[in-house]
Amino acid sequence: MASTKQPVSPGSDEDLRYAGVDERKRKRMISNRESARRSRMKKQQHLDGLISQVTQLQNGNKLIEQKVNKVDNMYIKLVSQNNVLRAQLVELTDRLCSLNSVLRVAEEVSGFAIDIPEIPDTLLEPWQLPCSVQTVAASANMFQC
């Protein structure tokens, strides 16, 4: 017995069923494409945000580096000035000692009493200050450039 295929009419139930399956596949495929597109856009927006944040952080780092360099240069200048002042202190202390010795010789030769003050210890030992130590409150923006 030969099986005979019956021609399926274009409006049969089977065609409608397959057409419904094909339509669902097509809609699912479109939905998946749209979802993938949204996902790519979301990733791109996130990446753009991260790139923007990196740029901001790099700019912030440059500003901080510039401020640190400026403070470092100021510190170097202050150390240099402090060294100059210390050298001047030594020179002036030596000069004062020399002048005091001249006064002592003049006092011995003349016989007149001359009041020769002693060199204050603070000149020889600057860590021993003659005045009371006062605390200094530093403000948060004290070192802003």
UniProtKB/TrEMBL annotation:
It comes from the Eukaryota. Keywords: DNA-binding, Nucleus, Transcription, Transcription regulation. One of its GO terms (molecular function) is transcription cis-regulatory region binding. Residues 1-45 are annotated as: Disordered. Residues 14-24 have a biased composition (Basic and acidic residues). It is found in: Nucleus. The keyword Metal-binding does not apply. Residues 22-85 form the BZIP domain. The keyword Nucleus applies. SUPFAM superfamilies: Leucine zipper domain. InterPro entries: bZIP, bZIP_plant_GBF1, bZIP_sf. Pfam families: bZIP_1. GO terms for cellular component: nucleus. GO terms for biological process: positive regulation of DNA-templated transcription. PANTHER family: BZIP TRANSCRIPTION FACTOR 44, BZIP TRANSCRIPTION FACTOR 53. This is BZIP domain-containing protein. It comes from Camellia sinensis var. sinensis. The lineage of its organism: Eukaryota, Viridiplantae, Streptophyta, Embryophyta, Tracheophyta.
